[in-house]
Amino acid sequence: MALCQLFLQSEAAYSCISELGELGVVQFKDLNPEVNAFQRKFVSEILRCDEMERKLRYIEKELKKDEIKIPDMGENPKAPAPKEMVDLEAHFDKIESELREVNTNSEALKKNFLELSELKEVLRKTQTFFAEQGDHHSIVDDAQMALVLDERGLPVHAAAVQLGFIAGVIVREKAPAFERLLWFACRGNVFLRYDAIPEPLIDPTSGNPIHKSVFIVFFQGEQLKTRVRKICEGFRATLYPCPETAQERLEMLNGVCTRLEDLKTVLNQTEDHRHRVLLNAQKEIRAWIIKVRKIKAIYNTLNMCSLAQNSIIAECWTPAHVLDQVQTALRYGTEVSGGTVPSILHRMQTKETPPTYFRTNKFTQVFQSIIEAYGVASYQEVNPAPYAIITFPFLFAVMFGDCGHGFILFLFGLWMVMSEKKLGAMKSDNEIWNIFFGGRYIIMMMGMFSVYTGLIYNDIFSLSLNFFGSSWHPKYPEANLSVSNLQLEPLTMYDNATGPYAFGLDPIWQHSENKITFSNSFKMKMSVILGIAQMLLGISLSLINHLHFRNLLNIFCEFIPEMVFMLCLFGYLIALVFYKWLTFNALCSECAPSLLIHFINMFLMKYSFPTNTTMYDYSCKKWDVSKVGCGAETVFYPNQKPIQIGLLVAGVLSVPVMLFIKPFVLRSRHNAKSRRRAKLGTVSKDALIPHEEEPSEEDMLLNQDVSINDEETPTSSAMHQHEEMGDLEEETFDFGEIFIQQTIHTIEYCLGCISHTASYLRLWALSLAHAQLSEVLWGMLFHMALAMDIKYGGGVLIFVFFIVFAVLTIAVLLVMEGLSAFLHTLRLHWVEFDSKFYIGSGFAFLPFSFKPLLEASLDEHI
Predict the structure, then answer these.
(1) Whose CA is closest to 163, among 171, 155, 154?
(2) What backbone phi and psi angles, to 5 degrees, belong to 469?
(3) pLDDT, tens digit, 9 for 90 and up, residues 282-312
(4) 3-class DSSP state for residue 250?
(5) What SS3 state is found at 663?
(6) Rounded CA gap, 329 and 342, in Å?
(7) Rounded CA gap, 82 and 42, in Å?
(8) Alpha helix positions (H), 37-188
């Protein structure tokens, strides 16, 4: 990674930055961190881009309102020249103004159409109300009888009193409350009839359907009329004029219908014009969006640069192997802009920590993302991602070991990999699917490794396959086969000539009663072996870091003691496991040691010896235990006691080496450096030459970095400040802080070796849980269906049980168990493996690139 300084002419800066954005290999530094965002040079251009984005957002909203999809043709237009911004702004303003004018006119027409539609319904319903006859009385007679009473409380003749009425429409849900309030407010002196409009009306503002009802209210007197009107206003009911005679109502209805037909014609023409405008915008809107994004990104980058008289100075990080490509891009940008002065790329020397950059492809990207979720690697630190490509799916498969389940997982990942172009072009908004699709390669790898471990376990949907023939041959007579509890004798029923099963576990263990006991012992030891092996790999990788950074002190005070501690204690445990596997068999099973007890006794300095050491020579043969006195706790190989004591002492002594030596060595180095400086009378570490004089102010001014315009650049002054700060940091030394840090590291490592070794037992636990769940699903569902003896309908019943078995297998064993195994594998890599060598305190290389602007959704940036 190289820190470069760019000297760009003001006229060519825009084109050069645009070309670098297309290249996407340069990360710019902000040279104006103290300047407010609204006080920078190109803030007006960015505000213009924001305004264009607002207009594009409005156009996109209108397209979505009409359900017009925006096509993604994979276009990648170049960033337009600054002078083209005026044309884009004028074009966007024209489209927005046209759409707003059309929408305003359309909304007004729709509002008018709604009012006329409501008036039509009012006229129709009131005509119906007045035409209805109930008990040979009209609605007016009913109102007269209900409202007009004489002194005795009897209804007065209809012609005696003239009633007034109001008609209108109200939202259907408000009609019952409207009726109750009229009754209480007017004390029952009103007569109300309402009826629902059968077809919903369209709200002109939101476009949502609304359900309304027509009502007519009869009352007597102006006071009640005023009260009724206020209640209608409170319920937002719309009142419409309604003639009193049937002939006038019919004439008004005909006129309203004629106006509605004319409005429909005008509305259709308006909608057609609006649709044509949107279709024209649909073809270009994605290209417009990309152009505006690129313009805004360029000006944001230019705001990070330092401005001189006629040039722009920028600082950027870029990989050293692409410097030629950056030079070519700058040269092309200068030519496009018509500039006469070439752009200058100057590689700088700096003590600043560069960003971390790893070249990845679509296969390795998912593994690198998993590692960077823990922490971005420090610059030039060992990257755990290449090792995780193998260890991650393998440890997952150890917990998920089933040939059938792994094959289904592999097919799912393979399908996504083979169809990645088609599936990637769909651009789904479903986050869960996007997660699965992004991890398609790791899913395929995990499925493939699970098939391998399933063959090792000889487990496929909780069943075993006998490919090579079992090495166990029962020799019981047929009369004894009816006994349920038969035991296979290893000495007589095991075929020592052919040896063990060719690949994986012998299928006979699937049918044994002590299957779990055997598989637990095997998987537990395997988990410890794999865990300690991976931790040793992590410690070995720390040596690469120390060698690369030339830190010999860490090699002698951290790597070697850590390796000695791990090998002398936990590496010895692995050696005991392999020794027991290779040495002991069925002949000497009664003298086979218990490794856990021996490992505990190693720390307790507790040893048990055979009673007859002259007879017992530690070989594996048929011993008489009563005479020899060997057992699970007795020593089982020569010189076991001195070897274990020596390993224990070496492991314990490595702890103070890790704890004390490094802080005191650093303290001694600092004191020696301080005495040397005091003796020479130097002012800085750069003035350690004998008899050197302090530079004068004139010399300091002459030695400053000068820009192309003979002015001190902000960059050079920043570099001087950074170097001065680095000198001050090197001169400060806090022995107490360093000693505390080393103490924490030592305690964390020693306790971590114990806890991390125990943590790897999750490989055994989840493998056991997966196997048992698979066996439960098989035994309680599909096997039960196959065992049923049903003459008719048995095939249908088996099919139903198979569907339930398949659904539960996918939902529980593949999805839930797979996710659980994935999370546990993630923890083993982050905590147990990475903590042995990976610091992860760096920051990622985030180049200025236009590629994310093309892949992101429209709503993300606009």
Answers:
(1) 155
(2) 85, 130
(3) 889 999 999 999 999 999 999 999 988 788 9
(4) helix
(5) helix
(6) 12
(7) 12
(8) 43-65, 84-131, 139-147, 175-185
**Backbone φ/ψ region at 236: left (φ over 0), alpha (ψ -120 to 50), beta:** left
| Residue type, position 728, single letter | L
In the numeric block, which tokens belong to residue 530? 């794999």
* DSSP one-letter code for 465: -
Please give the pLDDT value at position 535: 96
Distance CA 315, CA 829 (A): 36
Query: Residue 205 to residues 210, 272, 455, 508: CA-CA distances in angstroms?
Result: 12, 19, 66, 75
Contact 714, 306 (CB under 8 A): yes
- How are beta strands 191-196 and 2-9 bridged, if at all? unpaired
> What is the separation of C-alpha 406 from the centre of its chain, rounded to a whole number of angstroms?
24
**What is the pLDDT confidence band of residue 779, given thresholds at 50, 70 and 90?**
confident
**Position with higher pLDDT, 788 vs 503:** 503
Give pLDDT tens digits for 786-845: 777 777 777 788 888 888 888 999 999 999 999 999 999 999 999 999 999 999 899 999
* More confident: 159 or 657: 657
Report d(CA 511, CA 486) in Å as an integer: 12
Distances (CA, A) of 301 to 17, 23, 26, 216, 564: 8, 15, 11, 68, 52
**Alpha carbon distance 436, 443 (integer Å):** 8
SS3 318: strand
Could you give the CA distance from residue 158 to residue 414 in angstroms, rounded to a whole number?
87
pLDDT of 145: 58
Cα(298)–Cα(287) distance, rounded to whole angstroms?
A: 17
* Rounded distance between C-alpha atoms, residue 244 and residue 141, angstroms: 14
Give the pLDDT score at 645.
94
Q: What tens digit of pLDDT does each residue of 415-442 get?
A: 999 999 888 888 787 889 999 999 999 9
Question: What count of other Cβ atoms lies within 10 Å of the Cβ of residue 273?
Answer: 14
Could you give the angle at the alpha carbon of 336 between the alpha carbons of 330 and 338, nearest 5°? 105
The 8-class DSSP code of residue 463 comes to: B
pLDDT of residue 501: 86
**pLDDT, position 424:** 84
What is the DSSP secondary-structure string of 481-502? TT-S-----HHHHB-TTT-S-S
Amino acid 717: pLDDT: 38
CB 449 within 8 A of CB 394: yes
C-alpha triplet 438, 397, 509: angle, nearest 5°: 155
739: Cα separation from own chain's centroid = 39
Residue 220 — very low, low, confident or very high, per pLDDT cuts 50/70/90?
A: confident
Residue 6 parent element (H or E): strand 2-9
Q: Choose between 182 and 691: higher pLDDT.
A: 182
User: Residues 6 or more apart from 7 whose CB is under 8 A from it?
Assistant: 311, 312, 313, 343, 344, 346, 707, 708
Residue 740 CB coordination number (10 Å): 12
Average model confidence (pLDDT) across the chain: 84
Determine contact, residues 333/12, Cβ cutoff 8 Å. Answer: yes
Look at residue 405 in the predicted model and tell me its pLDDT: 94
- 517 and 764 in contact (C-beta within 8 Å)? no
Question: 592 vs 181, 496, 505, CA distance in Å?
Answer: 94, 20, 21
385-399 helix and 515-548 helix, angle to the nearest 10 degrees:
170
Query: How are beta strands 212-219 and 311-318 bridged, if at all?
Result: unpaired
